[in-house]
Amino acid sequence: DIQMTQSPSSLSASVGDRVTITCQANQDISNYLNWYQQKPGKAPKLLISAASDLKTGVPSRFSGAGSGTDFTLTISSLQPEDFATYYCQQYHSLPRTFGPGTKVDIK
Amino acid sequence: EVQLVESGGGLVQPGGSLRLSCAASGFTFRNHAMSWVRQAPGKGLEWVSGITGNGGRTYYAESVKGRFSISRDNSKNTLYLEMESPRVDDTAFYYCAKDYFGSGIFDAWGQGNLVTVSS
């Protein structure tokens, strides 16, 4: 199975801050990488697929980058509605595996 | 609008059985693979099982292989997960997810359904 790691596990930030979350796979997954946002008590929501393709309707302050084993999710200017937990997920192979999540909360 | 509505969760005893359902609407159900993803309370996401659009192929995480069974009825636009001999560590919120043309991109999710395995 492909193992996914994320860092940091949590971070505190202020509205307007630039935030970057990293995700690493333990083997080459090319660009088969998704990012999801999950708010408390809600289902995950797809933000980015193929490492950098923003889903329609997702604000442009979100961006993704990377290929191979190292990926990033960046929020260019954090908004109040962005406080949530973010997960990466590889779809290079089965079983699909998720990172452990990064919780972004208010400083 | 894509909608996925799960039902069938609740309390089940270890060794019992339970069937989850996921009613889909707003898209051509038979064209897309579907998956179940679970989340233990306060924990991360774990992919559980997937099925192709025509139901011909099924896939399982090692943690549930031989105990859970995924199926679908394309005439009813409904996905199922049969849970046999559940264990306490199967306690989780279970989400059905639309797998965009079987790509592994989960582009729509249900609201989640809590399954509690306890005696």
Task: Compose a concise summary of this entry.
The complex is a heterodimer of chains A (107) and B (119). Chain A is mostly beta strands and 107 residues long.
Can you describe what's shown?
The complex is a heterodimer of chains A (107) and B (119). By secondary structure, chain A is mostly beta strands. Chain A has no helices and eleven strands. Chain A is 0% helix and 50% strand. In chain A, strands 2, 4, 5, 6, 9, 10 and 11 form a seven-stranded mixed β-sheet that branches. Chain A is globular. By secondary structure, chain B is mainly beta. In chain B, strand 9 (92-99) and strand 10 (106-109) form a beta hairpin. Chain B is globular. The mean pLDDT of chain B is 97. Chains A and B meet through strand 4, strand 5 and strand 10 of A and strand 5 and strand 10 of B.
Keywords:
heterodimer; A: 107 residues; mainly beta; 7-stranded mixed β-sheet; 4-stranded antiparallel β-sheet; B: 119 residues; 54% strand; globular
Indicate the topology.
The complex is a heterodimer of chains A (107) and B (119).
Chain A: E1 4-7, E2 10-13, E3 19-25, E4 33-38, E5 45-49, E6 53-54, E7 62-67, E8 70-75, E9 84-90, E10 97-98, E11 102-106
Chain B: E1 3-7, E2 10-12, E3 17-25, E4 33-39, E5 45-51, E6 58-60, E7 68-73, E8 78-84, E9 92-99, E10 106-109, E11 113-117
Parallel strand pairs in B: 2-11
Antiparallel strand pairs in B: 1-3, 3-8, 4-5, 4-9, 5-6, 7-8, 9-10, 9-11
C-alpha geometry of chain A: globular
Number of helices of chain B: 0
Unreliable residue runs of chain B: none
Name the helix and strand elements of chain B from N-terminus to C-terminus, one letter apiece: EEEEEEEEEEE
Oligomer class: heterodimer
Distance between the termini of chain A: 36 Å
